[in-house]
Amino acid sequence: MFKKTCELLARADEAISMLVMVSLSRNLFFICADLLDVRRSQIRSLSNLTFYWYSLIYLILRTFFVYICASEINDESKKSVEVFRAVPRASWCIEIKRFNDDVSCDIIALSGWKFFYITREIVLKVCGSIITYELVLLQFSDEFSTINDDPCANSTFN
Fold this sequence. Notes:
About 75% of the residues lie in helices and about 0% in strands. By secondary structure, it is mostly helical. InterPro entries: Gustatory_rcpt.
């Protein structure tokens, strides 16, 4: 039964892996772009500010929860290994040994066009990458904000 489920997951992954890749890329791009816009834009009205933060938080939470739910596939596949480890090795037969090797060695998860597999670790790495990216952008935007953006202001022809 488990092998049939893995085959079904592999077929589903073949069908939607490109969609997963595009979805994750799009969501990460818009999260980073919206976070960058916080520093650049001057949001003046309360309604615009409320809408901006609501949409940004909604985008972040939606992306996070979709990929946490997708990573549950990998987490559930690892639970059978815990059951096998509770059984003494002396009572294992050759089929159980092979099955344990298959489950513990294979990556059973959805993929993003076979570039990466959606696991809990990758979700946390992506969150860390977004935070690092934003910290770097904040440092560079502080450096560039001290430079006057008006090229005519420093002109000697005034």
